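FAQ: What does the model actually see?

It sees only this:
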Amino acid sequence: MSGHSALIALLAARSAKRGQFTLASGKQSTFYIDARLTTMSPEGLSTIGPLALTALRQTEWRVDAIGGLTLGADPIAYAISYASANSDQPLRAFTVRKEPKAHGTGKLIEGPFWQGDHVAVIEDVITTGGSAIRAIDAVRAAGGVVAGVLALVDREEGGRQTIEKAGVPVVALVTASQILNALPI
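And it is asked to produce this:
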């Protein structure tokens, strides 16, 4: 099974559920994806890291670092960073807090992120695009240059278009319809 097929199978088996759900965006849905059940597992990390690194390398983005809004982006960014460790272009991973730290330096971005870095913002599941936009804004405010957004899953509900209308390209490893097609009826 290819890395892409394995990822779809993992997400369908572990992360996708049918039912009635309220999403983080406030929208109602009959389909829920808890990506963390996949992204925080050994099989998920070892599948996502190389697959996402390959997807990034196929873009023209040329990034120094990767990260996004905690908590969803964290394991994905770490898996990509780890997969890049022995490459000619290792990528540093960072985390964007939801609120600035209330003590110490009061940072909003944690980890080895430097002003002037070209970054790919990581997102676990794009629905409205709001989380990615928050991370993009935080990176830009800290002096970073956002090359694009790499998402694990695009729910295909307009979020990708919202991000692209803001002038940021999006690459998604998997779409919700691919996961739905892999679910038993």
